[in-house]
């Protein structure tokens, strides 16, 4: 077993003599896995039905001779220009009716039968030729599905949408019922009348929008499945496609069921002070999507990217530190885009393992160092083993793409960032040194002591019942604002929102929303809504709430914090109800960070979870336990000191008292410290 190391390799961009230097440098850097062919369709099929595989044969043979394994792509992510010339209907259309052109990438309509047919034919040729190649380790299907075109509004997509709706609802009467088309005279007499939710005079039908999100996700997933079916006919090797962290258009819970290995592309901004905890959250999601199994960091940058307004470089050592953050949180592969920094094209200023300036560079020296260290870590066994090990967690956050799509639609009670709310909870929990998994609300939850459910806008009856049963069985359930407002079809849960099961287990109901806002905010340009004052010992005293607030009616719960100003003065802000052998909490706003930390400490104690003792000094030190190792990563500007006994496997020396510079890393084994996982 090994921690894979390498990245995207695009030899078609370079003259043939460079290839020999590539494999020599790959060996020098310790590269063990190369992703090949991601954007090579036009090279592999220069004209319809004419294929050229000779160059790819040579590339795979060179890599195999050098001992580098291959993650072979299906090359379908960017169709060649000839496809659009012969079949312009394959080009995608925006909701404003603009047909997108060639000259970039991902210029295809996911519903296009022509695109799917041509893609399947290409994949068939690739699989037939390379399924038994000795270099092959993994199949890489397409690339970053939906990154640029997640929704297509063309006539081909419209017909596919109608077919999808007919399959989902069976009859136009059922569609009218679910969509609530009695509102605004939107009733349909046949499926032929239904169109995609293109640009309209004002608010569009909310359930139509939600169904188009579902449809668009399903169409891209159907493209993926179509290619995978071709691969499965001829090969038993694992299949993956690269996810993109918290990517709103695609429901990765559904996608994760279709891949053999979860892989992800992660590009935190070095200039953003929140990039470290946010990337940690992304890594926790990838681990969770695979049910805790190891995953692959398929893409990251060695230094700067090329697509931000300002492209900050990574500080010395930061690439290494961020790579170890991924390993700590369950990754068994550290890969990059791309191997050799391009000399031409739109991404020529995106950093690579081999920079424009060559090997006498800071980046290359860090690349070599990381390669040596990952190879050494791969060799560890017994209690010190890292490859294949798990990250234990007793805390989970319920994550729901349908709620994400719904809460951020126009016409919602307030502007709410679903992701920022999730991030607020996650970052506070991990700051206590605790690991966090993400779960679906309907999943088996018995492995967890504390489950948080923030902004779960669309709640089904089975989901509500499952969450309530978790509390009844002894768990600590925390329900955040904006939860259970509608069912999965955006029909409001009448009688106090939340749904029957949550109303019972929480011992409350919601009378009215009161998000912090003012009628004149937009007119005056006053900016963000003012905070809502609240107080309670569980919050550390007086505090501010943000984003949301509600008039909460208590029926069978204890009020632990209240709002203190305006119309909400005296109304509950935080409640708790004993439920069976567990408890159910409700939080009607988003407390400011310090108050949220105080609250989370109370919740953790209520769940019987012990906060681990400090493992190192410093405020920006990330500590994560994986298997038998404790990862200590210093993301701060100041030096940090390791406080636990054991051996640092990176240096072979004693860990206790080890001083880590900024971006320094220690991986401690043989430590007697308690559970430590988080940031």
Commentary on this structure:
This protein has 679 residues and is an alpha/beta fold. The chain has 3 domains: 287 residues, Glycosidases (TIM Barrel, Alpha-Beta Barrel); 212 residues, Class I glutamine amidotransferase (GATase) domain (Rossmann fold), CATH 3.40.50; 58 residues, Immunoglobulin-like (Sandwich). Helices cover 31% and strands 18% of the residues. The chain is built from 18 helices and 28 strands. The strands form 5 sheets. It has a 10-stranded mixed beta sheet, with helices on both faces. It has a 9-stranded parallel beta sheet with strand order 5-4-3-2-1-9-8-7-6, with helices on one face. Helix 1 links the parallel strand 1 and strand 2. Helix 5 runs parallel beside helix 8, helix 14 packs across helix 18 and helix 15 packs parallel to helix 16. It starts with a strand and ends with a strand. 50% of the residues are buried. The C terminus is likely disordered.
